[in-house]
Amino acid sequence: MTKAVVVGSGPNGLAAALTLAAEGLDVDVLEAAETIGGGTRTSELTVPGVLHDECSGFHPLAVDTPFSRRFDLTRHGLRWRWPDIQYAHPLDGGQGAAAWRSVDDTASGLGHDGSRWHQVFGSLSERFDDIAEDFLRPMLHVPAHPVKLARFGTYSLAPAALLARLWSSTEGRALFAGVAAHALRPFGSPVSSAIGVALGTAAHRYGWPVAEGGSGSIAKAMTRMLEQLGGKVHTGVSVTSLHEIGPAEIVMLDVAPAAAARIVGDRMPPRIARALSRYRHGPGTFKVEFAVHGGVPWTHEESRRAGTVHVGGTFEEIAAAESAVNRGSMPDRPFVLVGQQFLADPTRATGDVVPLYAYAHVPSGFTGDATAAIEAQIERFAPGFRDRIVARHVRSTAQMEQHNPNYVGGDVVTGANDALQLVFRPRIALDPYALGVPGVYLCSAATPPGAGAHGMCGYNAARSALRRSER
């Protein structure tokens, strides 16, 4: 039986392990931490019984992919739950906007901007299954749906600042700014619309679901399926060199590019080692988990029903904050993403104390304390929020990296989403998963299609390994 070893038990490492085990390989997963899951871990960080997602909290691209169709995790305990409103964007004075699952409902709340919202996201959401089939793969392939992909590319290739001109109202522009900010890129840079267009379309096609019981439920379901297929997961096992792994025909590395170069060492061809050493990481995140009495008193009513709330004010304010962060400067009013997963999944709360997930975009390796800035931004749109805080758990950029070494400098998306890396990551290659050493592959979020608990990086990498093994 062919032996395979997977280093790292994040969603991509486990997806790679499942893909290999399903083909009859003997698979071991080695995880350095004491708990599995990587970016899909859930813990009681503040108050007993209150469950907090430690990194990934929402999974719009996880519910219908080639991986999820091949491996039905709902048969192993995973349950998806959706909020009433997928994401919302409060503005001063109780104003704001909201993205519903329905494109029509979203458009109707945007007044005269509704037709333009429908123009972009309505047409894409109808075709998104086919579009996703192409963009969830490496870019260097023959598209299965070239016309549909081209339409998606028309909007995605534009700078966010340019695409935002489609909307003239403060509300419409802000609603797009919040989802575009997920790219952690300056709004004037090329392709800075891509992440926002993809996530915005996914909100209408699939919603932004959460995993019942926390994102850790995803890793648990994957592990149960893996064990059923004969695979094994070992925690507390750190790997710093291929020599520590032992005999294995296939090795999958769910690690950052620089870590992969260190593990493979001088066996890696110099040109590939140089490419991985030049891989660029993006801005960091500063995360605060709150335990809150009764939820957040948003003055914008629809934000009280939204799973995700984008906090940062107008399009212009968010654009300025993202530009500052990418220059290495900490803004006074950072963009803050707030997660209210408990609205879709009440099992995360205890009594009237609910978990609140919040992180700010900060410069890479930011050494300051952004707690006050995060609280001030939420208080700005929800007066009285501070009075409801029961407990906090703070994780700085350094602590984010310590918690998960793939998050270099606090970069939770495992790589800057600039134009080159968004298309070719971690390097320009026909097979971006191969590391130039027979049987050794990179399968982390630094590979296509990038960040998210969708498992497609690991699935694609494992399929590449299987094809090469057959040859």
From TrEMBL:
InterPro entries annotated for this entry? Answer: FAD/NAD-bd_sf
Q: Where is the signal peptide?
A: none
Question: In the record, what lineage is assigned to the organism producing the protein?
Answer: Bacteria, Bacillati, Actinomycetota, Actinomycetes, Propionibacteriales
What is the official name of this protein in its record?
NAD(P)/FAD-dependent oxidoreductase
Transmembrane feature ranges:
none
Pfam families, alphabetically? NAD_binding_8 (PF13450)
Superkingdom, taxonomy of origin? Bacteria
